[in-house]
Amino acid sequence: MIKKIFLAAMVAALTVIPSLGWQAAAVTGKWELTIKFVDQDRTRSLRFVQEGEKLFVYRIRPNGEVVGEPTLGSIKGNELEWSEMIRGDRDVTLLYKGKIDGETVTGDLYFGDRSVYEWSAKKIANMSPAGMPTRAEKGKRN
To answer: Which of 11, 15, 20, 57 gets the most CB atoms within 10 Å of its CB?
Structure first.
């Protein structure tokens, strides 16, 4: 009797927990990201590839070509983040933090220790596994 009650409780918990949003959102696909700077908005395409709580962020050229190496970020629940380094006379780290709501993400871009800008992204395509980099390609970048 106790085993049946325990089993019923576990099934109920496994049914309810995902609906409470305690699992990572699914973001794999192509996204259009817009950053709101003081004098203009800048838009670019990204491809997110999610593996559990790991997030691989690929920049995409207008012709669909992937630019450079992916950035490794993370996803926890409905929150994601990743960072990029801009190399130059003075290296600057860009830190993106956002909250996922379905097929949109909104958040803040921390431009080094100088500025914070708002950004948003909208999912524009679900990508099949054939459109994603292979595990071997990603393994080279970890």
So the answer is: 57
What is the pTM assigned to this prediction?
Answer: 0.71
Tokens of 140: 């080279």
Between CA 126 and CA 132, with CA 131 as vertex, the angle to 5 degrees is 95
Task: Give the Å distances, CA to CA, from 139 to 8, 32, 46, 111, 128.
Answer: 41, 25, 19, 28, 19
Helices vs. strands in the chain: H and E counts, helices first: 2, 8
**DSSP 8-state symbol, 131:** G
Mean pLDDT of 65-73: 91
* Domain covering 27-127, topology: Lipocalin (2.40.128)
Q: In this predicted model, what pLDDT tens digit does every residue of 22-52 receive, in sequence order?
A: 456 789 999 999 999 989 999 999 999 999 9
- Sign of the torsion formed by the C-alpha atoms of 136, 79, 27 and 19: positive
